[in-house]
From TrEMBL:
Protein family according to the UniProt entry: Belongs to the G-protein coupled receptor 1 family.
Keyword annotations: Cell membrane, G-protein coupled receptor, Glycoprotein, Membrane, Receptor, Transducer, Transmembrane, Transmembrane helix
Species of the source: Neotoma lepida (Desert woodrat)
Domain G-protein coupled receptors family 1 profile: 69-314
Domain of life, source organism: Eukaryota
Record protein name field: G-protein coupled receptors family 1 profile domain-containing protein
Length: 361
């Protein structure tokens, strides 16, 4: 994420404030770069101030809510639900990806206000971790939609998650790791103490735009197409099924798709516009550049909030998962009552006490 003081109007790969993208670096200090060709300098102090207020507040909320929800999902699936289906495995991996993504948010919140204080290597690692888990999370959503489609339209398998399921999970993680290589290579701490990508000038804008398009394709377009096709066929199959309660499953499918579109589509539209602008230099107006910077901050934050909604959409809506939650809650409540009963026994009193079921010698 980055924050800059000035951006040239002519090179529309202007460095955006507090974004994890890599198409706004031309304004970095570079003795070989000729700034004399530009007519004006765009001052973005108000964009910087907006980032200092908006990003820490929003990222803190997302971190707290997402950490609580995804931690519950991981705890239930890892320690209580031993017989897991393929969907359970995908949801577990999705929750892990969301947790690892959320762990990076406090670093970016501090970066928005005080700059990057953890050094160049942590800048690279944190940026790569962000990309790995953001992309893998989108891919696991696609895996869940495929498995649900298969369970409704085909004969469901009675066996649990087998080796093919774990192989798919490994492939998803590997693809996300490969896509994070640009972060490991190009992210660094600039002269303003911001963690930001800096591309060598000889690579030009084509590499930055290509990486951006690849992120859009793997992180949004492919998962969206898979989810759209699978859930559309699943909904049509449910409608044609006689003698079943269709309203709730259809509402769940519709909610999942709508939430995905609302949270992810605006961010990827802005990313696409920035990638096109990096090639064709379409934005030559300072006000438009500022609006683009603010748009990427807001839309990316909304996209991140999807990590907080995943536990509700994919775990808490399931009857099986809710049953495990109730069992854990009852077990914890019983343990608390036993502890309270034990603590109420006056061990230091010489008088007789009433026997309780929670105290034994």
């Amino acid at each position: 994420m980055k924050l800059c003081c000035t951006e040239t109007l002519g090179a529309m790969a202007l460095e955006q404030n507090q974004s994890l993208e890599y198409y706004y670096e031309e304004n970095e200090v570079n003795d070989t770069y000729d700034y004399s060709q530009y007519e004006a300098v765009c001052i973005k102090e108000e964009v910087r101030q907006f980032a200092k207020v908006f990003l820490p507040a929003f990222l803190t909320i997302a971190f707290v809510i997402g950490l609580a929800g995804n931690s519950i999902v991981v705890a239930i699936y890892a320690y209580y639900k031993k017989q897991r289906t393929k969907t359970d495995v995908y949801i577990l991996n999705l929750a892990v990806a969301d947790l690892l993504l959320l762990v990076t948010l406090p670093f970016w919140a501090v970066n928005a206000v005080h700059g990057w204080i953890l050094g160049k290597m942590m800048c690279k690692v944190t940026s790569a971790l962000y990309t790995v888990n953001f992309v893998s999370g989108m891919q696991f959503l696609a895996c869940i939609s495929i498995d649900r489609y298969w369970a409704i339209t085909k004969a469901p398998s009675q066996s649990g998650a087998g080796r093919p399921c774990w192989v798919i999970c490994c492939c998803v993680w590997m693809a996300a790791i490969l896509l994070s290589i640009p972060q490991l290579v190009f992210y660094t701490v600039n002269h303003d103490a911001k963690c930001t990508p800096i591309f060598p000038h000889h690579l030009g804008t084509s590499l930055k735009a290509s990486v951006q398009m690849l992120e859009i394709g793997i992180g949004f377009v492919i998962p969206f197409l898979i989810m759209g096709v699978c859930y559309a066929i699943t909904a049509r199959t449910l409608i044609r099924m006689p003698n079943i309660k269709k309203s709730r499953p259809l509402k769940v499918l519709l909610t999942v798709v709508v939430v995905f579109i609302v949270t992810q589509l605006p961010y990827n539209i802005v990313k696409f516009c920035q990638a096109i602008d990096a090639i064709y230099l379409l934005i030559t107006n300072c006000d438009m550049s500022k609006r683009m910077d603010v748009a990427i901050q807001v839309t990316e934050s909304i996209a991140l909030f999807h990590s907080c909604l995943n536990p509700v959409l994919y775990a808490f809506m399931g009857a099986s998962f809710k049953n495990y939650i109730m069992k854990v809650a009852k077990k914890y409540g019983s343990w608390r009552r036993q502890r309270q009963n034990v603590e109420e026994i006056p061990f230091d009193s010489e008088g007789p006490t009433e026997p309780t079921s929670s105290f034994t010698i």
